[in-house]
Amino acid sequence: MAQKYYIFFGVIVLAILAGIFAYPNYYNKSVDYLNHKMSWTLPHFFEKPYVLGLDLQGGVSLVYQADLSQTADKTGAMSGLRDVIERRVNMFGVSEPIVQIQGQDRLLVELPGVTNVEQAISMIGQTPYLEFDEERTAEETKQILDIIKQVQDAQTKKEDVTKIANWQQALQNPYFKPTDLTGKYLTRASVIFDPTTYKPQIQLQFNAEGDKIFADVSGRNIKKPLAIFLDGASIIDTNGDGKIDGQDMYAPIVENKITGGKAVITGDMSTQAANSLASRLNSGALPVKIGSPISQETVGPTLGAVSLQKSLVAGLFGLLAVVIFMVVFYRFPGVLASFALVVYVALTLAIFKLIPVTLTLAGIGGFILSIGMAVDANILIFARMKEEIKSGKGLAQSIDEGFKRAWPSIRDSNFNSLIVCVILFFVATSFIKGFAFTLALGIIVSLFSAIFITRIFLMVFIGKWAEKAKWIL
């Protein structure tokens, strides 16, 4: 019999600790007051802030469209692009960025806490796209130059350019064409120095797949130039004008087939410029090109704070409504279930901090919904208890039978809800994922609350005295 009191005491201690961890302000203020009045040195409770999403904290949301026209493995390229940009924004200390693929060729980038759109675009744009291009044949060059001339003439005459056959070729480099070797296969870039001239160089190391592609590309271009481009521009700009005019283009002549997966970039550059370029390449060379964002949105911190406040008020009203319902319809067991519900809220919020869960408006909506679902199990249990009491069974036996007979229904309904949450989390967009995750977490904790905590409360507080006052049940 004493065991249930030990468990009850443990639950109360756990609930208090979880509540203080979830919201330590009042506890720490009380500690400050006692330390000031009594000259004590009591420590503050450990503080850990909630991780807030862009819609609550404010920030920047950008949508990019990748150029997959030259890419065979579109899925792999987009996955690589996502990983590289995520690594890039993490380097700038952005808290909990969200980088997700949308559809086939779009990438969503959400940066909480960043309110400067231009800064965010610049941050992402600093990630370079590295490519190695081989020389076109004379026929290909002539064909593209002819189309460029036709387009220029049409523009001068203000005619419709799209009526020219293959007019899109005018957008291509007439002298070089892309190969399969890009920064996607780059593993490391390091600065080395020429042993003769002592000028800085950049050594590129490719992975095993890049090694094979590099060997193939260099093998078919012996005694030909192989141009190296960064973000569509020459890797080395000797006169600083940022243009590719033939003189600036870094296109070394391939002397032999290159194996080993290593390439060296040379040119008239300072050690500082070489280190900067190597750092940019190591931070992630984009596997595919992206231009300017096709969509951008800024959420101010003030709007985020208002949304958070309204969400908390909605959650409080929802909790009070559930408590009133339970007390009115189930009387004393409803009171105990309400206390269990408060413990549930404290535990869930503490878990949100510990994981941590990035809280968004949708996520808070899922948590508020889970508050209502948290009492579903209690309602089923209490309904079964009423039936057992009406059939003439004793109170202790009615409580035990109520839990046993209600469990299959509780298990099945919550399991089905969890299945839907899992499907939403893996299939839906980021907005719905937050809702699904917090709802699933709430359902799991609510099962613990109803089956374990409510039962302990009933066993401790409902004894023989209740046999004489069954109306309270």
Automatic annotation (TrEMBL):
InterPro entries: Acrflvin-R, EF_Hand_1_Ca_BS, SecD, SecD/SecF_arch_bac, SecD_1st, SecD_SecF_C, SecD_SecF_C_bact, SecDF_P1_head. It is found in: Cell membrane. It comes from the Bacteria. Keywords: Cell membrane, Membrane, Protein transport, Translocation, Transmembrane, Transmembrane helix, Transport. Residues 294-459 form the Protein export membrane protein SecD/SecF C-terminal domain. One of its GO terms (molecular function) is protein-transporting ATPase activity. This is Protein translocase subunit SecD. It comes from Candidatus Staskawiczbacteria bacterium RIFOXYB1_FULL_37_44.
